Amino acid sequence: MGYAKIRSVALQGVVGQVIVVEADVAPGLPSLVVSGLPDAALTEARDRIRAAVHNSGATWPQQRITVNLLPAHVRKHGSGFDTAMALAVLAAGANLPTSLLVDAVVLGELGLDGTLRPVRGVLPAVLAASRAGAGLVVVPPGNLEEARLVPDVRVRAADCLGRIIGFVHGTESLLDPPPAPPAAQRAPADLADVLGQERGRRAVELAAAGRHHLAMFGPPGAGKTMLAQRLPGILPELTEEESIEVTALHSVAGALPPGGGLIRRAPLQAPHHTASIAALVGGGSGIAKPGAISLAHQGVLFLDECAEFAASALNALREPLEHGEVRLRRVHGETVYPANAQLVLAANPCPCARPGGDAMCQCPPGARIRYRSRLSGPLLDRVDLQVDVVAVRSAALFDTEPAESSATVAARVVRARQAAAHRWAPHARSNGDVPATVLRGRRFRLPRTVLQPLATAMDRGQLSARGLDRTTRVAWTVADLDGRDVPVLDDVYEALEMRSRSGR
Ligand SMILES: [Zn+2]
């Protein structure tokens, strides 16, 4: 008979919050009531916990047991509280001492046999524990490496409930194996491998420097995928804060590769065109999982053969791209995941996609127009750079001049980003994010003489008002890359060319 409490962590999206699992054991008919807004998984946990306790050799209190999770207003999902609940029940009803767990946070699902099973989102959970001043975090062995990414907090593993029971009795110790050697990181694909493709290379560099969304149109084999895969390699390295946030998102999705450490490079996500909306923006049953756009947070979301994606799937990406976050509405409330990704679209020029290009096209009349109209929706409207990529001629492959490496281009990108961040502060961090009001405002408005090519294009109906802003943003990026304070006429011409894909 008695009362006890053990701390654990609940996740709200990608943010952890320390919660208290309290248990009260009182005389009465044997029963277990769990309260504190538990979801279905938590209710199911009751039988699992009881079995795990029995199979750990401990005695389940045959009395009236009440388990409550605090604070009540925090939504609690999943099975990560199993171990804390079992310990609280044993402490309240079976004299389990808790002095060694007073400042501890306990994470982990319980198997029926009493083993601790790994849970998703351990990185944000341990971060929350650390911020709350926990002196010890106990995790399942499968989560130990990830938990150790958080500095300055003592992390130990327990393979089973019996080990924690032994630990608090002073007869067993928790596990602290030496860290595994870091897995060899595969070097990102290098731009030096892309021969020829001046225009495509330039488009990728501009996209990186200005954080512009990019669309590439061209026949199969023109190198669109190669170029897209090399964009993350020329983006600036993530800051410490971004790195933790990105790693936490992958952790919550259960998509963190073992031994990879913190994700420090901009991630690349390339979902297949058959991917469901849930796979793209997040969702699924139980805990809403982050989708590809959140896993591409601070990195690149690459949609190859984007015309093949369902219109509903492309539409679902619009709002997250606009706001930099995904809001997943569920019965019990809303889960928010960051989703500030850079979009790269690639498409064939027409459905038949003959390698020879337009001359070899065998599409029936109308098919090409229908195909393009599927692309020219509101999503493409947000894409600053829209370029045609043509197949490389053999001559380019024999060029004696070696192509520039990603490192060389990345250095230019960093300088351009710094110039832009300095200029637009506090309104934006890159040219791609500058609000139209700031772009056209008195301070940064470009002179009429410089904008003249855009005015002409507008008069001819080749450029919309929105397109004019997008082209102006790209002109700033051209200037930043070349180290000019303000775009000149040539910069505007180049920016215009980077939107002039044929057939539009
Ligand atoms: Zn065709």
From TrEMBL:
Residues 210-393 form the AAA+ ATPase domain. It comes from the Bacteria. SMART domains: AAA. Gene3D superfamilies: 3.30.230.10, P-loop containing nucleotide triphosphate hydrolases. It holds the Pfam family Mg_chelatase. Belongs to the Mg-chelatase subunits D/I family. ComM subfamily. This is YifB family Mg chelatase-like AAA ATPase. It comes from Dactylosporangium cerinum. The lineage of its organism: Bacteria, Bacillati, Actinomycetota, Actinomycetes, Micromonosporales.
